[in-house]
Amino acid sequence: MNQLIGTVFTGIITDENEHAYFVQQQGLTFRLGKDEGDRKLGDSVEGFGYYDQKQDLALTTKIPQIRMGNYGFGEVVANRKDLGVFVDIGLPDKEIVVSLDDLPEMRSLWPKKGDRLLLTLKTDTKDRLWGQIADEEEFQARSHPATIEMKNKDISGVAYRLKLVGTYVFTDENYLGFVHPSERFQEPRLGENLKGRVIGVRPDGILNISLKPRAYEVISDDAAMLLTFLNQAKDHKLPFTDKSSPEEIQQTFAISKGQFKRALGSLLKQRLIKQEGGFTILLGQDES
What we know:
Blueprint: E1 8-16, E2 20-25, E3 28-33, E4 44-51, E5 57-60, E6 72-80, E7 84-88, E8 96-99, E9 116-123, E10 129-133, H1 136-142, E11 154-163, E12 166-171, E13 176-179, E14 193-201, E15 207-210, H2 221-232, E16 237-238, H3 246-253, H4 257-269, E17 273-276, E18 279-282
Parallel strand pairs: 13-15
Antiparallel strand pairs: 1-2, 1-4, 2-3, 4-5, 6-7, 6-9, 7-8, 9-10, 11-12, 11-14, 12-13, 14-15, 16-18, 17-18
Helix pairs in contact: 2-4
């Protein structure tokens, strides 16, 4: 087996042509494109060794973070049902494949273009490079415990482990999180970029996350408009209630009284507002 594939090493330039230098190490010759810098015969050069798309030995000085024994996030660029998913790790002319054997049984849960996977590299008996998805131990090593101050915060991250009990998330701030099936509308894909909110912090510092929007994010357009008016109003209150005349409502909000009452009803039900003394008043978080 070629021990240089997937690793960083230093070789000597022994030859060149119009487009490339040829770098030798351990009796093997690697092609280095001249677009990566000017060099001369006899120079030593450090780079990352791999087989290019033509299965020729290649070297790049643009060393990827993802390599043998080293993990990094790569972006999925395509998938193929008979092979797996193709991941861009930064090589100039090649993507790395994560085998279908390492992906969920359900193809609907396979990563799609734009999703991200934490990978290292491995080789098979034919010196072919494959992506190897990070295990739980690697994510734990990269993470740090969250504190209670994270509650109610918005978070973003990727789904890194899919289980019947729920979805495990690694956030952009290096926290570990968990999404119970009741806190999502559908099961995320492996590697899917997620946005959610923290609904709790466990004693071990793992976040409980919801992928469902907050109450005010699922209200109607009319209710959202009223919230905007209330947020901008002095003392966050408006001299309108469900007793206001249709003419006043139409003139101020450009909606019918029926629409206005439905919007008020929705906001009252979600305890985002209250009516008092002829006013509709926005409730603070401590009152809701």
